[in-house]
Automatic annotation (TrEMBL):
This is Alpha/beta hydrolase. It comes from the Bacteria. One of its GO terms (molecular function) is hydrolase activity. The keyword Hydrolase applies. Keywords: Hydrolase. Pfam families: ABHD18. The keyword Hydrolase applies.
Length: 327
């Protein structure tokens, strides 16, 4: 336990070396969205992804990139183009895994280090989805990857969450229409928050695995170390916790039930996580009527230190749920 907490603290120290150079706060322009408006709010439109891929030497896989224009424009040309990496097996019936990375990640390397080799050996299709304002979607004026997705700009944070869900739903629906195998979502950290939120709105998901996920953004910003400078920015602009909760409630996965089978959901949490607290992750688990959950005796650094266990548990769960499919 001491080691995991120490490693988390070192990672947090490194995280805060990069922070917003200027206030991100902008005054509210709109009323908070109501719960009954969420279906329309997170609506999506058909996507037409363009693939730039090449076959490998033995032609069992083709790999490269995909992109499509977001159905929701937030005014930045880089961000409004959805992009990602893709690895497609020659077997048309292969399962389709969509990975969603965490906040402030600079690449998919951490996600790949957990899952990629094992799933490549299984012959599964893999799509690495890029969240708004991250990687190549990061605006030029941004200080770090993901700065504009979660910040003291309350309404932009809601809009970015909306865009992430709409874009992810568009990709899911395209795969369902154009591929034969099941669709599996795997989200890590903030990616888990987005996949969980998507599961409450999208019925075309066969399996969901959420690893070290966040739940209520307001809770994370107000009560955890990673949110400390965003919280400071909000307080300096006289935003209270109650106001933040009201404004960001529309983004909470725990306010609605998933539109997929509960038995096909696996939640993985870290007992000593200093990025996303057990109090908040348990809140979602209970709100969703307790789907299968694994609690590791580690911190958020388990993404690195426990990557083999995460991969093993995830693949075992997925295989137990898709055995009825041929691939």
């Amino acid at each position: 336990m001491f080691v995991t907490k120490y490693v988390d603290k070192l990672a947090l120290y490194d995280l805060h070396k990069k922070r917003s150079k200027v206030t991100q706060y902008v005054s509210f322009k709109h009323e908070a969205m109501k719960h009954e408006e969420r279906e329309n709010f997170y609506n999506t439109y058909a996507a037409n992804p363009q693939f730039n891929i090449k076959p490998n030497e033995d032609r069992t896989y083709s790999s490269g990139n995909f992109n499509f224009r977001s159905s929701i424009s937030l005014g930045d040309k880089n961000n409004d183009m959805v992009s990602g990496e893709v690895y497609l097996n020659s077997n048309e019936n292969a399962p389709n895994i969509i990975f969603v990375h965490g906040w402030r990640m600079d690449s998919n390397d951490r996600i790949k280090n957990i899952f990629h080799k094992d799933m490549l050996n299984l012959g599964w299709n893999m799509y690495y989805f890029t969240l708004p304002y991250h990687f190549e979607r990061e605006p030029k004026e941004s200080t770090y990857s993901g700065e504009f997705m979660i910040s003291a700009n309350i309404e932009r944070t809601v809009a970015a969450s909306r865009q992430a869900v709409a874009d992810l739903r568009a990709l899911i629906q395209w795969i369902k229409t154009n591929k034969s195998g099941p669709v599996i979502l795997i989200g890590v950290s903030l990616g888990g928050f987005i996949t969980n939120l998507t599961a409450t709105l999208e019925s075309d998901i066969d399996v969901l695995v959420s690893v070290f996920y966040a739940n209520r953004l307001s809770y994370s910003i107000w009560n955890t170390n990673p949110g400390m400078y965003i919280k400071k920015d909000l307080i300096q602009n006289e935003v209270t916790y109650d106001v933040l909760k009201e404004k960001w409630e529309i983004t909470e996965p725990s306010i609605s039930k998933p539109k997929m089978e509960k038995d096909n959901i696996l939640l993985i949490s870290a007992k000593h996580d200093q990025y996303v607290h057990m109090e908040d992750t348990s809140y979602l688990w209970e709100s969703w009527e307790k789907p299968k959950r694994l609690v590791y005796n580690c911190g958020h650094s388990g993404i690195v230190l426990n990557r083999k266990r995460i991969s093993k548990d995830t693949i075992s769960f997925i295989r137990s749920k898709i055995f009825r499919y041929e691939y």
